[in-house]
């Protein structure tokens, strides 16, 4: 038997310590073995023995974890297992709405209008709620306001759909405090970006998520959004599979090959690993390739269409799904480009009939004028889709069929 005291054990660690005739490896109680390490142990038929946390002399044997394999003949070789194989992957499949935050004229959170908005989203059929994401401007809210937003959403939701709450605080201690609070009020999981502002090494990035995974009361969705913080490397994500608390990834990189590689690589070890796409423009192809769904900001404006796009794709009605995917592109481009994020999306919510209040950021008079023009253009696009909206004046004639019945 060889004894290894490292907290993280990789295949390289094993290669450097094993002599070739061992039948067991003894590791410390908190040790985590990476998937590549587990593969090596299985190949050599070596058993893992974990020392008891209370006694170094007392040990218990543990067989290296064998990943679940897909049923023979159920899919072509090499294709990741389809979503929905476990209760957790089913619960975190579908369209999760990263809601905006609505303010009153004094710039405080408008809880009454927020209640109306969240209730409307649930009634429209969205599959989950995602407060304190990028669209929810979490970095512009105080810690107390972030708590209040999730509490309000949990109260309005009443357990109807899962809540995936953003808990990306500035340090591990605050993340865990927020996770404890979210668990107490009924959130289902937390979402975490890599630490922002200070860029850290990949080793430190692993340790950051590992420490949270060891202590979080809630399951964790890793959030890759390199536009706002550092890239979350696939090597680090693969090593983090050792923690069952980390159940999936939201990817907003706008990079379809990256999402496909995430599913192919991580589901080899964890077939039920959840992957949610955060980019509207590639929602259809990402679902076709096996994504569980998406955290889609546009679902906060046209939930009816985004939910239908997801459901039509699952039903293999690709003609209709493709039509919906292309028809939403002009709206996405209007809300995303040429204006401070997420003000374009908040303008879209205003067009749907909600008083979103002032921006919580400084804007020039030209930018305010642009938002007024944008509101009219969004109104035209939504009217063309079939929605009854105010402000749709002088709209170009497209001769496109409506996507929804007038509402």
Annotate the secondary structure layout:
Elements: E1 2-4, E2 8-9, H1 11-17, E3 24-27, E4 32-33, H2 35-44, E5 47-51, E6 59-62, H3 87-91, E7 94-97, H4 111-123, E8 128-129, H5 143-157, E9 164-166, H6 172-185, E10 189-192, H7 202-215, E11 219-224, H8 234-239, E12 246-251, H9 256-266, E13 274-277, H10 283-288, E14 293-295, H11 303-314, H12 318-327, H13 329-336, H14 343-351, H15 365-385
Parallel strand pairs: 1-3, 2-4, 3-5, 7-8, 7-14, 9-10, 10-11, 11-12, 12-13, 13-14
Antiparallel strand pairs: 5-6
Helix pairs in contact: 1-2, 4-5, 5-6, 11-12, 13-15, 14-15
Question: Please, could you describe this protein's structure?
Answer:
This protein is α/β, with parallel strands linked by helices and 407 residues long. It has 2 domains: 61 residues, no CATH class; 232 residues, Alpha-Beta Barrel (TIM Barrel), CATH 3.20.20.70. It has 15 helices and 14 strands. The strands form 3 sheets. Strands 8-7-14-13-12-11-10-9 form an 8-stranded parallel sheet. The longest helix is centred in the C-terminal third of the chain and has 21 residues. About 6% of the residues have low confidence.
Count of all domains: 2
**SSE order, one letter for each helix or strand:** EEHEEHEEHEHEHEHEHEHEHEHEHHHHH
Q: Termini separation (Å)?
A: 71 Å
Across the major sheet, the strand order is 8-7-14-13-12-11-10-9
Short description, anyone?
This protein has helices at 11-17, 35-44, 87-91, 111-123, 143-157, 172-185, 202-215, 234-239, 256-266, 283-288, 303-314, 318-327, 329-336, 343-351, 365-385, and strands at residues 2-4, 8-9, 24-27, 32-33, 47-51, 59-62, 94-97, 128-129, 164-166, 189-192, 219-224, 246-251, 274-277, 293-295.
């Amino acid at each position: 038997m060889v004894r290894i005291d490292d907290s993280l054990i990789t295949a390289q660690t094993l290669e450097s310590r094993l002599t070739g005739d061992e039948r067991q490896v003894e590791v410390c109680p908190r040790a985590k073995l990476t998937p590549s390490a587990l593969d090596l142990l299985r190949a050599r038929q070596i058993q893992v023995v974990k020392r008891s946390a209370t006694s170094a002399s007392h040990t218990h044997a543990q067989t290296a974890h064998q990943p679940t394999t897909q049923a023979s003949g159920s899919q072509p070789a090499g294709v990741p297992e389809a979503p929905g194989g476990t209760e957790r992957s089913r619960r975190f499949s579908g369209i999760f709405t990263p809601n905006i935050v609505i303010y009153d004229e004094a710039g405080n959170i408008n809880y009454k209008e927020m209640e109306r908005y969240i209730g409307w989203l649930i009634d429209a059929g969205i599959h989950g709620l995602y407060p304190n994401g990028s669209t929810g401007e979490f970095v512009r809210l105080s810690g107390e306001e972030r708590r209040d937003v999730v509490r309000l959403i949990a109260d309005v939701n009443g357990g109807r759909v899962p809540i995936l709450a953003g808990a990306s605080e500035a340090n591990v201690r605050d993340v865990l405090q927020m996770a404890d609070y979210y668990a107490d009020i009924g959130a289902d999981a937390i979402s975490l970006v890599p630490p922002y502002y200070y860029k850290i090494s990949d080793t430190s990035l692993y340790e950051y998520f590992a420490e949270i995974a060891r202590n979080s009361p809630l399951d964790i969705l890793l959030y890759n959004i390199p536009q706002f913080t550092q890239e979350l490397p696939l090597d680090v994500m693969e090593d983090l599979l050792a923690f069952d608390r980390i159940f999936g990834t939201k990817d907003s990189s706008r990079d379809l090959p990256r999402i496909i590689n995430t599913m192919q690589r991580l589901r080899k070890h964890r077939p039920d690993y959840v992957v949610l796409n955060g980019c509207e423009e590639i929602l259809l192809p990402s679902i076709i390739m096996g994504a569980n769904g998406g955290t889609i900001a546009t679902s906060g404006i046209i939930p009816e269409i985004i939910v239908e796009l997801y459901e039509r794709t699952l039903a293999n009605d690709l003609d209709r799904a493709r039509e919906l995917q292309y028809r939403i592109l002009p709206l996405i481009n209007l809300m995303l480009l040429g204006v401070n994020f997420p003000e374009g999306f908040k303008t879209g919510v205003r067009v749907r009939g909600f008083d979103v209040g002032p921006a919580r950021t400084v804007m020039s008079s030209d930018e305010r004028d642009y938002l007024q023009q944008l509101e009219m253009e969004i109104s035209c696009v939504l009217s063309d889709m079939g929605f009854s909206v105010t402000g749709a004046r002088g709209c170009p004639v497209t001769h496109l069929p409506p996507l929804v019945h007038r509402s």
